[in-house]
Amino acid sequence: MGKTAFIFPGQGAQYIGMGREIASEFKSSSDIFDQASEALGFDMRKMIFEGDEETLKITENTQPAIVTASVACLMPLLEAGIKPDFTAGLSLGEYSAHVASGTMDFKTAVSLVRKRGRYMQEAVPLGVGTMAAIIGLSREDVEECCREASQSGVVEPANYNCPGQISIAGEVKAVEKAMDLCREKGAKSRTACGKRSVPLQHAGAG
After folding, report:
1. Higher-confidence residue: 51 or 193?
2. For residues 74 and 99, what is the distance between their CA atoms, to the nearest angstrom?
3. What are the Cα distances from residue 89, in Å, to 20, 140, 196?
4. Do the beta carbons of residue 19 and residue 33 sit within 8 Å?
5. Which residue ranges form the domains of the chain, and what is each CATH number?
6. Of 28, 77, 98, 131, which residue is most buried, by most CB within 10 angstroms?
7. pLDDT tens for residues 79-132?
8. Do 35 and 44 contact (CB within 8 A), yes or no?
9. Rounded distance, CA 128 to CA 137, Å?
10. Handedness of CA 181, 186, 189, 190 (dihedral sign)
């Protein structure tokens, strides 16, 4: 018999309006947005549903927003009796996975990631750092591009997400240079054998 796994996204997956539809259809999902607002002391629903992209991608806003939307999507599944045998998350998504597995309550998780995002933002001020996903190149090629681009500043592979997808992070100029070098090696577009480089919606190098 098969097993069920719930896997949750990390930073960079955010967008204005995420979770709006499910919150309008399920009270349990709507309640999660209210709980987030109560825990954090500001209107999470308004920021995600009615705010702007620049505010949402500030790291200390992004992280609790993604956890809130993720858990809001989780609630109807749990109510329907669909429970995971395993949970996992990409970086920030680990906190959503903890909530799903019952090892951390939601208010604790959303409060922690707000602080996590703030500390990360303090370490890399706005406009200084960024991230990008390199898709379709080998780890050796990506590492080589980062080494060459490091002449322009700090840039390193940050996450080896899966074979063929690596996130890089560092100073804006160096990350942009690394992206250019990766494109020269074939990370160009969706049509170029699936090879591409994609800037992530980060206000910092998380």
Report:
1. 51
2. 9
3. 22, 25, 23
4. yes
5. 5-123 (3.40.366.10), 129-199 (3.30.70.250)
6. 131
7. 999 999 999 998 899 999 999 999 999 999 999 999 999 998 887 767 778 889
8. no
9. 26
10. negative
Q: Give, in order, the Cα–Cα distances in Å from 142 to each of 20, 139, 184.
A: 37, 5, 11
Residue reference for tokens 């209210």: 34
How would you class 5 by CB atoms within 10 Å of its CB: exposed for 0-12, middle for 13-18, buried for 19 or more? exposed
pTM: 0.78
**Quick one: tokens of 195?**
């090879």
Residue type, 6: F
Residue 37, both tokens: 């607002």
**Tokens at residue 43, please?**
């209107």
Q: Which residues contact 33 (CB under 8 A, 6 or more apart)?
A: 19, 23, 44, 45, 48, 68, 72
pLDDT at 1 over 50: yes
Angle, nearest 10°, between helix axes 59-79 and 93-101?
A: 30
Residue 190 pLDDT: 40
Express each pLDDT in 179-203 by its tens digit. Answer: 999 999 988 544 333 455 566 665 5
Mind giving me the DSSP string for 34-103? HHHHHHHTS-HHHHHHHS-HHHHTSHHHHHHHHHHHHHHHHHHHHHTT---SEEEESTTHHHHHHHHHTS
What is the residue-averaged pLDDT of the chain? 89
